Amino acid sequence: MYHPNRFGATELSFRDYGPISRFDHHRIPINRDVERGIMYAGTTLSCCIVEIFGDSKIVQVDGWMVALITTKRDLTLLELRGKGAMRAGTVASISKDSNREFSQAWSRYFYENPFLYEAIDGLVFSNAHNEEESFALYETCSDALECTQGQFIELSDSTLRTEVLLAASENNLKVAPYQATT
């Protein structure tokens, strides 16, 4: 999911402003880091909804877009779920710790040490809200992603309404009133 009015987001853009979110690998202090970009993704709409709206507990569908991104090559992802975090040298709570500076520092470390972790395209982790499979993708895999015309839709589209309401209900979120688009 992305919001076209925030950070110039498109279905395939990597945010170069940061670090602000869990696994942002931008160099500090918070600023634009044009050499580093991050994209967060999930395998389900529910995952994307809780990652974006889980902290506020209110799903604001207006303005948000949902994109179906596919890969043109296999991605090399560092596993941080279960025992993967310990194998990577950290702890499993890295995906849930509220101290974002901790997880951001680790993300920078993974990114900056390809001799230890291969040349990784990003991270796979269980999100902090409902433990669904999530991805933090680095700009290094931008050439591997595609989203063709017709593979993105407004979150407010009426065809998604049932799925949005179900995801909200299952995750104890409220949905702000909106007019479904067709």
Task: Please explain how this structure is put together.
The structure is a single chain. The protein has 182 residues and is an alpha+beta fold. It has one domain. The chain is 22% helix and 20% strand. The strands form 5 sheets. Strands 3-9-8-7 form a 4-stranded mixed sheet. A two-stranded antiparallel sheet has the order 1-2. Strand 8 and strand 9 form a beta hairpin. Helix 1 packs across helix 5. The longest helix is centred in the middle third of the chain and has 13 residues. The chain is globular, with a radius of gyration of 16 Å. The two termini are 18 Å apart.
Largest sheet: 4 strands, mixed
Computed structural class: alpha+beta
For the termini, the CA-CA separation is: 18 Å
Task: Strand order, main sheet: write it out.
Answer: 3-9-8-7
Q: Strand percentage, roughly? A: 15-25%
Q: What are the low-pLDDT stretches, counting only 5+ consecutive residues below 50?
A: none
Tell me the total number of β-strands. 12
Please tell me what the overall shape is: globular
The count of domains is: 1
Give the helix proportion (percent range).
Answer: 10-25%
* Rg (C-alpha, Å): 16 Å
The number of helical elements comes to 5
Order of helices and strands: EEEHEEEEHHHEEEEHE
Overall pLDDT, averaged?
95
Descriptive tags:
182 residues, 12 strands
Please give a quick description of this structure:
With 182 residues, this protein is of the alpha+beta class. The protein contains five helices and twelve strands.
Topology:
Layout lengths: L16 E2 L12 E2 L5 E5 L2 H9 L4 E2 L5 E3 L2 E2 L5 E3 L4 H4 L12 H13 L1 H4 L4 E5 L6 E6 L6 E2 L5 E3 L6 H10 L3 E2 L7
Parallel strand pairs: 4-12, 7-8
Antiparallel strand pairs: 1-2, 3-9, 5-11, 6-10, 8-9
Helix pairs in contact: 1-5
